[in-house]
């Protein structure tokens, strides 16, 4: 099903209240963190596209756009400043606009 961002946000908020670690009855920190990770993936168009295309549900191998960029910078610190943004975005499989947003947030 193609859930809209509004539907995803509503479902996330309802479930996060139940799983929040501060909830003494139903709180579960591990599930709460997993829910937040899923929410970030589903709300980011590039990450959601990758998830929808690959169907990958393995937390170890599926990365958000932010995680892909962070790993790139750690692995290739000198290339970040030498390559055009469009080439880095292409390598990571994300749009240049998403990469620009990630870089702005890191400042």
Which helices and strands, and how do they pair?
Elements: H1 5-19, H2 29-43, H3 45-54, H4 65-75, H5 79-82, H6 85-92, H7 96-106
Helix pairs in contact: 1-2, 2-3, 6-7
In short:
The chain is mainly alpha-helical. It has helices at 5-19, 29-43, 45-54, 65-75, 79-82, 85-92, 96-106.
Q: Could you please describe the fold and organization of this structure?
A:
It is a single chain. Helices cover 69% and strands 0% of the residues. It has 107 residues and is mostly helical. The model has no long low-confidence stretch (mean pLDDT 85).
Mean pLDDT, rounded to whole units?
Answer: 85
Query: What is the tally of beta strands?
Result: 0
- What spatial form do the alpha-carbon principal axes imply? elongated
Q: How is the main sheet built?
A: none
Q: What Rg do the Cα atoms give?
A: 16 Å
Strand content: under 5%
Secondary structure tally, helices:
7
Distance between the termini: 36 Å
State the order of secondary-structure elements, H for helix, E for strand. Answer: HHHHHHH
Q: What structural class do the secondary elements suggest?
A: mainly alpha
Residue share in helices? 55-70%
Give start-end ranges of low-pLDDT stretches: none
């Amino acid at each position: 099903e193609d859930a809209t961002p509004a539907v995803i946000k509503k479902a996330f908020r309802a479930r996060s209240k139940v799983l929040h670690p501060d909830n003494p009855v139903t709180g579960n920190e591990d599930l709460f963190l997993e829910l937040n990770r899923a929410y970030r993936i589903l709300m980011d168009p590039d990450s959601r596209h990758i998830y929808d295309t690959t169907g990958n549900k393995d937390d170890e191998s599926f990365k958000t756009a932010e995680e892909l960029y962070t790993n790139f910078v750690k692995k290739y610190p000198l290339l970040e400043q030498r390559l055009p943004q469009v080439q880095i975005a292409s390598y990571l499989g994300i749009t240049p606009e998403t990469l620009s947003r990630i870089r702005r947030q890191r400042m």
